[in-house]
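Sample 1 of the test manifest.
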Amino acid sequence: MNPQKPAAKETAARAADAQPAAAPAPAATPANAAAQERRRTPRIPETPPVPAPPARLDDYEPVIGKPELDELRFLAGSLRGKTVKMVNSTAVGGGVAEILNRLVPLANELEVRTKWEVITGGDDFFQVTKGFHNALHGAAYDLTNQALDVFLAYNEQNRQRMEFVEDLVVIHDPQPAGLVRSKEASPGRWVWRCHIDLSTPHPGVWDFLRPLVEQYDAAIFSSPSFTRQLSIPQYLFYPCIDPLSEKNKELEESYLEKVCDDFGIDRSRPVITQISRFDRLKDPVGVVEAYKLAKRYVDCQLVLAGGGASDDPEGAAVLQEVREAAGDDPDVIILNLPPWCALEINALQRISTVVVQKSLKEGFGLTVTEALWKSKPVIAGAVGGIPTQVVHKLTGVLVHSVEGCAYQLRYLLTHPDFAQQLGKNGREHVKENFLITTNLKRYLVLFQILLGVTQPRPAA
Amino acid sequence: MATTSPVSPGARLARAPFYFNSESNLTRIVRERATNLDELLRGLKSCPDASIFYHTFQTLREHHYIRGGFSNDFAQWVFAACNEVGLAERLAALDVRDFTSVGEIRERIVSTVESYLKHHPAAGTRPAFEPFYFCASETVITPTPFVANTLAEFADALPRVSLHSIHHHFITARLRPPLTRNDFSVWLEEDLALASLAARLNRIDIYTATLNDVRARLLQLVQQEMARSAQ
């Protein structure tokens, strides 16, 4: 193991360094003037692009390699013909639907017959489940008997409507958790996949849900820190990204150039990027402050790109705060992007010299996963699921303050070999742990264990 | 003993074929958690064997792409979350190849932590920067279609099997009888009478190489053997 200091101490100590004057800005040229104009009026797509066709299993071979792909087929071999049902509460939007959209066709391609069904409910149901969702994350919530009745009534209605004849039933998140009442009459094993952080739940809501959850045969969580003590086995499935999705697939150099041109980014100088909603918990103002400290030593640009400012009053307020913090610095590029800009986000990550995710609170932090997958050196707040992805000084660097972030920016921008090694390790870390193919493999292994179909053969 | 026919060692039939299996692991989250070294010690004593296996052997697979840095999760946590570098170094020196059972590994880790806390009692209750969550490994062994009847077939299969297969046969095999040896070396020695090659394979350092490096080195040694014997 390397004798490295933990991030907090080091960054605090280094931040006390003397600060020289700001690095000189590049001279004004016609090209710069055009870029400045583009920064003021970036070309942002106004309509969603045509969706790409879903990837097939063989398409993943160049990404994960034939041996790993073959292994999925070997694992699925003993599950061939088994049936699986996945149930969640929405067919579009949100991370769960995004994952199921990719996972279900891949499982079927492996001849594990997998169906995906969505529960239905009125506005009253989804108001209650949204309240539950926030409460389970620790928010204050006025739990009423009426809310419980609404939750149970819609779960019962869906339960009556649905059939559970499959060998395995996977219920995603709390909304359909009550379907487990069909378990006794069904032939299959039941799994509850919890995508949310239950570390500090609202006691009333959790007391209500817990007896339902404990009727399942197993539960799956995204992080050990998200779990509760339960009487059933709990498994760890990290969230995942799809390397062939719009947000992560390889891009042509000409497209990267176009995006830089559209947004006024100068690729001849280092680019620091944070991709996230304009949300105080992502600390975009802290990122601007860290950039300003770093810029005293290294000439660089900052790109802050994300959404959430158009349909959310708080997001709009945060965007305004970020603009004020940036002041008249022409090298701070702030992009309020619509949700269909996955390709642009992908390009911004790829043209970055360093990617920052200076969150103060975080779920798993899939934007970090995306950046690591693109072999980028990442500087990130040590919160939520980020330390699982960013192992300090091995797959990225962790920071705890604006000053620490600034120091690491200076360091990585002036030590490209080290930055490159972090990026290389980061990509391998994602390849091993956080790709959709790994997620599929985890499901196959879990199904084998739950159904008792493993057929081990002695080694040599 | 293997046959002594005049064919080259690469083509000589082994007494028994080598079946490549693969290993897939699922991580189970167990009850034990630690927020300081005292709690780590308690967890080390009470956690299932599968947890000790997970945090020592499994780490080698999950971080197989890193040369140095990681040797086991306990060392990493003690270093990064507790800032107890001396203890971290001692834990990091643990080499899973020196043990014949998970129980022995547990004993060594427990005695290392106990000894450290005896000399540094204040470190026991100092809050860690982040908790340590004990996990455990549930393993499924999957047969693969790759089978080697000769050294040449073995060399042909090595690049085609997954890294999980390499990990299964070369690293976790050391906990299966005959203990402390890997499956490849056992086969080479017992079924192809290649004791010297078997010993060279067994000496490959799994802590200073990535699993890809291990695969490349295995292949290199096997190819060298075939070339040498063909002369």
